[in-house]
Amino acid sequence: MKVKFITSIYSNLWGTDLGGRPSRKGHYRWSLLSLLKMTDADFLCYTSSEEIEELKNFFYVNHNISEDKLEFKVFDLRNTKFSNLINQIKDVEKTKKSDRCVEIQYSKFHWWWDEDKTYDYYYWIDAGLSHSGLIPNKYLEQTNHERRYYESSLFNNVFLNNLIKFTGDKFFMIGKENDKNYWSGTVDRKWYDQYDRKVHVIGGLFGGKKEIWDEIVTIFENYLEKLLPEDKRLYHEELIMSLMRVNHNDMFVLKEFDTWWCKDSGPKDLDDSYYDSRISFYQILEDLNHE
């Protein structure tokens, strides 16, 4: 069974016309290094021409990661498949102050068209997914100063194999409960066959068998081409994915959670009863680690 993860690292987008999180260089690198403990999979990481040599040095030279396991590829985010459509709607000055980049969000799907489809399963994973804001201390490396916020034991080949088994013939997604534990609005309800906001799909980890990706990406891109021009909004990819889960429900299999927080990272005024009555995000990763 051949598995490939696709991800990206663009660390210098804050304050530009693309928008992006500030001060993430170390976060993305150390987190991706943790994800690479899934050694039964190969990884492809898109990045910018200004970052690629530093990334190669960090992973290939400093940490002896094989180029066969982790490939870097330069991609210009100002030349995405939907650049013309995005630029017709984008408020550049607002984007400079935004911590989200829609070019990356939409590319999570259209990068699929560049794949040669030689792997059995493909997953998108955010490079920065492994960090202490989501994962409790008991699953984090506590001795190394540089790694301690990002190095987690939860990402390994047991996790990978269980992810594949759970995915099966469907398309895997993770959804946050969005009714009792509200997180996000939706696209305009007119786009839903039957409006349902109960689950907010996240964009950090998703995928499935290669045979289903063509259809999934086509559905996503068709929605972009319809929703964005009519609503004049650059919807986050998660809102489009949440719409897809409802309108094409039979195609997906979900792991669901209630809160991003764990006891080690949540607000200090929350008592144990809050966590006892909710599923934290990390518990999805924990569940997929069970033999």
What does this protein structure show overall?
The protein is an alpha/beta fold and 291 residues long. It has a single domain (3-287), classed as Alpha-Beta Complex (Spore Coat Polysaccharide Biosynthesis Protein SpsA, Chain A), CATH 3.90.550. Helix content is 34%, strand content 15%. Strands 1, 2, 3, 4, 5, 6, 7 and 8 form an eight-stranded mixed sheet that branches.
- Please tell me the CATH architecture by its name: Alpha-Beta Complex
Structural class: alpha/beta
Rg for CA atoms:
19 Å
> Overall mean pLDDT score?
95
What is the count of β-strands? Answer: 8
**pLDDT under 50 segments (min length 5)?**
none
CATH fold annotation: Spore Coat Polysaccharide Biosynthesis Protein SpsA, Chain A
DSSP helical segment count:
10
What is the CATH first-level class name? Alpha Beta
